[in-house]
Amino acid sequence: MERLKVLPKKVLPIITWLPKYNVQFAIRDLIAGLTVGLTVIPQGLAYANLASLPAQYGLYSSFMGVFVYCLLGTSKDITLGPTAIMSMLVAQFCSRPDSWPTEYPAAISQSDPALAINLTMLSGLILLVLGILDLGFIVNFISHAVIVGFVSAASILISFSQVKKLFGIKLHHREFFKALPELVSEIFKGHINWYDFAMGIICIALLKGLQILKQKKENDESLSPVVRKVIWLIGTARNAFVVIGAALVAFALEKDNIDFWKDGCKSGTANCTSLTLTKLEDASLPPFKVPMLSYSYEFLNETTQEPEEFHVGPMMIISKLSIGLFIIPLMAYLESIAIAKGFAIKNGYKVDPTQELLAIGLSNSISACVSSYPVTGSFSRSAVNSQSNVATPAGGIVCGALVLLALLFLTPIFVYIPAACLGAVIILAAISMFDDAGIKHTWKLYRLDMIPLVVCFVVCFQDIAHGIIAGIICHVLILLYKTSKPSDGASESEGHIQMAPAQGLYYPAAEMLAERIESAVQDGKNITLDLGKVAEIDSATSDAFKNALNFAKKESLSAVVINANSQVEQILRDNGAGDFIAEEKSSGEDEKDAFLEKV
Amino acid sequence: MERLKVLPKKVLPIITWLPKYNVQFAIRDLIAGLTVGLTVIPQGLAYANLASLPAQYGLYSSFMGVFVYCLLGTSKDITLGPTAIMSMLVAQFCSRPDSWPTEYPAAISQSDPALAINLTMLSGLILLVLGILDLGFIVNFISHAVIVGFVSAASILISFSQVKKLFGIKLHHREFFKALPELVSEIFKGHINWYDFAMGIICIALLKGLQILKQKKENDESLSPVVRKVIWLIGTARNAFVVIGAALVAFALEKDNIDFWKDGCKSGTANCTSLTLTKLEDASLPPFKVPMLSYSYEFLNETTQEPEEFHVGPMMIISKLSIGLFIIPLMAYLESIAIAKGFAIKNGYKVDPTQELLAIGLSNSISACVSSYPVTGSFSRSAVNSQSNVATPAGGIVCGALVLLALLFLTPIFVYIPAACLGAVIILAAISMFDDAGIKHTWKLYRLDMIPLVVCFVVCFQDIAHGIIAGIICHVLILLYKTSKPSDGASESEGHIQMAPAQGLYYPAAEMLAERIESAVQDGKNITLDLGKVAEIDSATSDAFKNALNFAKKESLSAVVINANSQVEQILRDNGAGDFIAEEKSSGEDEKDAFLEKV
């Protein structure tokens, strides 16, 4: 496979690949860009819905990020834009506080778009500052165990948040423990929109069916290559096909009830139709406007019954977003860098974490100027991009252009997309996020890491931000406890004690060591990893070593672990990295005995 | 020297030494107890003043702690009671919040005694819980660097808080940065009580003179043993002699102006006299009463002009004390255990940290029942106790009995003690606390530790509690940073890299390792300390190793450090522990080269 080695440490990595650009690259990027575009348009509309924003904000968030990343990014595969996790966090942090007046005329969505846009700008600036100060290592304190707990909780919470759409039910509560009984009671009362229900069930069946078809048949050698290509395309762009189909059905059913170009139903609400359709403000291209951490909106003065302006200043925005300004930038960077590193190892190139921090930061800041909510790397679309054999980050330009065209010409159609269909898209995306493999892996390797995992998972149901914070604090406390209790390595004999104190290696150190090994592999070096000075490793360190050693193996270099103690050896073997452990044992034991005799 | 080995892990260590008790022990304990008693009575009166409590609370805090510790403690030298640091912290946390009504009739001191007593009870209970759960290691996170910064700031703050008493000036502000300009301006305006000023200067001169006399002459061989004994006694009990002298002078000057048994001047206020005297409620033995986290006091209802009851409940107490409930128990334990360990190593016995936690906890809880404010080990009095050759914790019983006698019979005299004299006692005690040696030591050994030291020192001037917290957080952040950046131990050659990752040992681990070594020394073992697995050590770990190795040397056991890398070797040499480093080098380097050739 052709390698595109992007040099790190350059502020504009595009300089390194653009001069080599050719027709073959262009064709690959065009095909990949179109495929990803067909994925991001329905996903964007659905995720905006999840973020409690009008649907067009999903598209506003889908083009500028990829353009900027194309100039600054060091991974060819990753595609920025709205994701399920970010959308859920936006819904969490961007609702207007009760102390602010209600918008007049009433807003069509629960989140405040202006707040979300300012959040995007601030998140981008925070990441830029972290990048300039080279403080990217702080994301290492969000351990893999906490991520597994968070993503698994998010999977359930996101899926659950969409179930009401399948039933066409509106709920008063958003908190899980209040919304769940409310939903159950509404269903038992029979407050179900059967149009929505039928649409939702059919969409889920179609999406799941196409997914299974793709999994089973795309590599079926008995089929002709053309049929296989078609199956791959339909399977990959299944969201687009199902959403278009559902919109056509809705158009056929509802075209007489809705006349959104003329009357109040322009904002397409459920009242106009028997099928709940998509909430959309009159949309076209968003304006280019730098968010200045202050904005106004109109509310109805109750005494005069006149609309008045309510001004929101920087301190109000910052105090409203509060820990969101910690969580959202870090999660954005973490999601993105994790995906980028994964594809970099898979496709044999190198990402520069600090440059990625700058790229994600600037992508968000500039994206905020076109009314985007926070963007990050999307795992599902990056996978589509990579499978489409994208050559350079320029694939993102094609994808972004497609989104712009959709905004220009397709908004009349979007209003007909049934809410239940978008709900089905999100539910299937969210269910697949549940990380049962990650939970089993943690349980098997290093059971102590289950504590932050479970703490994070459980607290997320009360509040998703508190869950992340609780998980991080819990894991840091375990880390501090470990730091305060090193192994004393004591061996006693009559009248003598020898002590060889040593610390373990834990999750914050894992990435740094893995990067060091991967960097050596890039330079074509064989690896000897001497773990004789390590008292213990946890699951994250074990994973990092395993991945880095596998990378060396993949590049046909030798990789050997020596002097591992029994705990370290066991955890590496349990993780399937036993092959790297050298057969021969170190002479350390003999040496120590010899010394003891001498003394 | 006779060793009194107190067995740990016993809930009542007294059981181990009481059966061996004899007349010789009794005489030693009697002499030491009387000497310490002569020190604690003037110090108690002065420290209560520093805690902004009526003077008798210093004595209430001076007897029950030593009684309980006598049953439970594992150190013969330590004496519990009021200390300068605790008194300052009580003044910080036990003033009534502005939202509570003012006491009627007006209180004679700024701190609320009932609040302080409840704080004592809660602090004791918190320590007991920590002891039962074996969580004593958390004090290891208050690093030595933070303690040096805190104690040095406290030294300045405590001295400064007493300067006004030398001038007989009353200030409105308590915060350092507001009180300092106010004091200067009052002095320049000439608002000085010259009686107080003369008294203060004479007391300082006398106290300092007696201290110098003791230092210079107590070991002067040209003097007869009796003269030397007298000098030692006068020097050691100088506070008592100076305070008694000052009280006699005040009595002579003021006896016609004050008639406290009959009229309002019973509470001995400055208005009755030209010399500012001691604030004392009518005092005798305190009642035995368990603080139940709720109490009432009277205030004047402004509309009715009638006194009413104001009830203070548990939640009000807890929210008022807030982080005091974290800082005060930990500082109490830390001060006490540090002193106990110091004397244990000096006098060749062993303290059990968990048992000490229980002992300090229970001492505070029971002391709270006799109206004590929080107590901990006093360095100065423990030193007096040790120098007086105390044999068992029973010395505390004599000392406590003396305090009880003073409370029963001497309170009429205490009212005549000039405030300036007590101020002089505190200033000289506080100045000697300034830890310039500790600052130089940290600077020399491991400069990074200066950051938490300086942060703690500086923030303490704004708020003493915030200073401690800021120092701890700062040091934990440095620790986490270090944990995330282990040494990779990389050595590269053509086409090959060998990595031997290792972590350093930092302050939270220091005590645990030192205790392990000291425990082996107790068992009479020779020590080999193999530091080959340690990438780096900080000043606290260097100190801990040095002390533990010196302990082995003192017990005539061999103690050798091997395989230390250059940083570790240097910091040990800088710390004066170079003698322990073995001349011969490990064969590790050769071994590694051999392996590299083989691969």
From TrEMBL, chains A, B:
UniProt KW keywords? Membrane, Transmembrane, Transmembrane helix
Its principal location? Answer: membrane
Q: Which residues cross the membrane?
A: 30-48, 115-135, 141-160, 192-210, 230-253, 323-345, 357-376, 388-409, 415-434, 454-481
Q: Which SUPFAM superfamilies match?
A: SpoIIaa-like
Checking Pfam families in the record gives: STAS (PF01740), Sulfate_transp (PF00916)
Q: Which cell locations does it reside in?
A: Membrane
Can you name this protein? Oidioi.mRNA.OKI2018_I69.PAR.g9748.t1.cds
Q: Where is the STAS domain?
A: 505-599
As for membrane topology, the entry says: Multi-pass membrane protein
